[in-house]
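W.,

You were right to be curious about this one. When I first looked at the sequence I had no strong expectations either way, so I just let the prediction run and decided to look at it fresh. Below is the sequence, 84 residues in total, followed by the output.
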Amino acid sequence: MATLTKLPNIGPTLAKQLEAVAITSPEQLSTMGSKDAFAAIKKVNPHACIQLLYLLQGAIEDKPYTQLPTETREDLKQYFRSLA
């Protein structure tokens, strides 16, 4: 968990959620991608919200989620809606 929590946006709670779906390193998260990681978490936590998806993408891009480009946020929003 310590390695995951070194990423921006990843605190202990989100790190535990990632570990629960067998994502234990930044490399695994990056390889899986934010959408697939989010889908895995959503299977075990159906209440996962779009904010979590933004957090994951920000962690992969090594930036606060608030700095994600508009195009990226729109893409993630469309993906989130497609899951409903």
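Here's what jumped out at me. The chain has one domain: 4-83. And, maybe more interesting for your project: Residues 39 and 46 are 9 Å apart (CA to CA).

Coffee later to discuss?

I.
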